[in-house]
Amino acid sequence: MQSFGFKIVEKSVQDIKPILHRAADDHRPLEIGLYFGDRRALSYLDAELPSSGVPLNTHLDHDRFNVFDIDSELDGFKRQLEQSVKWGAKYAITHVSREPMTVRLEYRTRLMDRLLANTQLMDEICGEFGFALHIENTFHQLDFYQEYFAAVGRAEISRIHHCFDIGHAKVWSTASLSDWLDLLDRLSDDGLRLHFHLHANQGLADDHLSFLRAEELGITGADSYTSEHDYFKRLGEIALRFPDSVKVFEVPATEALANMDLVIDRLSMEA
Question: What pLDDT is recorded for position 269?
Fold first, then answer.
C-alpha cells in the first residue's frame, strides 16, 4: 500500500507542510499541482523537496497546458516542465482539453488529428527534459480514450502515458468502473504507464470528496458505477491489479491525512 500518495498545490504553506512531512516520513508519493504560483509556497517547496526523498510528480495547469491548446502555450509549458524537473519529478499530469470537445462523429477524425499532432509536439518537448506526461480522462466516454491512446500507440509516441481519474469516469462517462479497469489493463499491456487519481463524488458533479467525507455521507457502498463492490474493496482491487502505479488521493488538504489513515485501515482489514 506504499503506492498510495498525497496531492498538494502550491498555494498555502500551512496546508502543505504537514502533508509533505507525512509523505516524507512514510515515503509515500507526492503530487504537486502547479495552479497558483504562491511565492511563499514555492520557496518552501524549493527548500524542502530536495532532501525529502519522496517519489514526486507534478500536475500541470491544465486550463492552459492541455493537449488541445498546447500549440499556443509552448513557453509556459516548458517553464512548468523546468519547475517539475528542478524538484525531481519524473513526470507530470495534464488533461486532453480545458473544456468538453465535440462528440459529433463526423468531426472525430479532425479532432483526433489535432490531438495527435499536439501530442507529438508535447512528446518531443518532454524528450528535451528527459520527462514524461500522463494524460488524464475528463469529459469523455471510455471509447474516446481508447481511440486516442490507440492513435498514440500507432504513432509510436513513447513519453505519453495515462492518468485514470476514478471520479471523472463516474461523472462524465456511462461505463462502469470494471469497464475502465479493463481498459487500463489493455493500456498497460500495450506499454503505457498508469497513474491514478482517487476521490469520491455523489455522481452529479466532480466533488473531489475524501473517502472520510464520503463515508459520513453514506456513499461508499456499492452503486451502479462500482457494481457489486463498495469503494474500499475497489480501491483494494486497484492496488492489487496495478501495484507499480502511483495512486494519489485528490482530496481537500485538511482531510488528506485522515483520509489516508481511513483507507489504509479499511484495506488492512480486508487483506
Answer: 83
